[in-house]
Amino acid sequence: MTTTAAGWMTRPWVRWAAVALVVVILLVAPLILPVFVNQTLARIGVFAVAVLGLNVVMGYTGQVSLGQIFFVGVGAYVTAYGVNAGWNIALVLILAALIPGVIGLLISLAAARLGGLAIAMVTIALPIIGVPLAKRLSDLTGGSQGISARFSAAPDWSGLATDQWQLYIVIAIAGTVFLLTRNLVRGKYGRAFAIVKGNEAVASSMGISPYRYKVLAFTIASLIGGVSGFLYMVVVQYTSPETMSFGHSITLLASMVIGGAGSMFGSLLGGAYYVLAPQVTNAIDPSLTAVLQGIILLAILFVLPGGLVTLPRLWRRRRRSSASPTPNQSQGKRQDT
User: Fold this and answer.
1) Helix 89-111 and helix 210-235: axis angle, to 10°?
2) How distant, in Å, are the alpha carbons of 22, 183, 225 from that of 179?
3) Among residues 251, 253, 247, which one has the least CA distance to residue 55?
4) CATH number of the domain bearing residue 101
């Protein structure tokens, strides 16, 4: 990017114009896109929120968490139960976030004092315990058969198709979560998270409690996971114990790494990978889905260790290196003069 272009991008009115353009696109796109595309974009939004929660605890704070999918599953079950019980949908959304958040808080109060492999083992246990627990609590969860909740059909007054209505819901709620999280990580809490991630001893010497901020990050990640579970029910309208399986937890972690740890836009890219990668690999060869996804993961990490979000930075760096003269070229120019 040239100096002139960089200067233009720093002007406030240019930023606001870009924001306005994005808002217009988000408002218009669901009305003109095909049903399948709207459904795919809605699912990407669902898992982008899940990846964002994982990014808060891992990308921004540096903790190890392998159980984020558990909170997504809890949020989905709370949503299904509340909808089938006839609760107000706003109350259902609040509970779908709060109940996973409270569970995350209780777990983090004990787990945040641990480190390294110990805390990893605690979070690994969440989906491992969650699946059989969901099967046993059949009165609440529907057992192995799962549970459905149909509440997101487009109302008649909207004049919208169901896929359009669902995508608008995802855009509104996911957009709010991303905005609130952006404000969080760019404020004093985000700076504290970064210091804790960099060096806990330094954080303590500055009066920042690593324990307190680890608990805070894990709780926020759990809340965001619950919101993702609510959105999952908006789009899919069905959940089962398989939703919170350990395999999905690993895929969610891989999605965060591929998108870019510690990045808001990387969370969006991670959500896109979570949804699109299985579709692409299934189209190539359904029997090699896991192998192909592993190859994609390794290839991206070798080329872009920081994830897909670092691709523009790598491209600009290579452009600068190709534009600058090599030492031999510079010496030749001096001899010519």
Assistant:
1) 150
2) 14, 6, 16
3) 253
4) 1.10.3470
State pLDDT tens for residues 313-331: 777 777 777 666 555 555 5
DSSP per-residue string spanning 204-270: HHTT--HHHHHHHHHHHHHHHHHHHHHHHHHHT-EE-GGGG-HHHHHHHHHHHHHH-TT-HHHHHHH
Query: How does pLDDT run across 31-55, given as a tens digit for each residue?
Result: 899 999 999 999 999 999 999 999 9
Task: Report if residue 189 sits inside a domain.
Answer: yes
pLDDT band at residue 2 under the 50/70/90 scheme: very low
Q: Which two tokens stand for residue 237?
A: 């309208």
Range of the domain at 79: 30-324
The answer as to whether 7 is a domain residue is: no
Separation of alpha carbons 69 and 136, rounded Å: 19
Total tally of structural domains belonging to the chain: 1
Chain centroid to Cα 129, Å, comes to 23
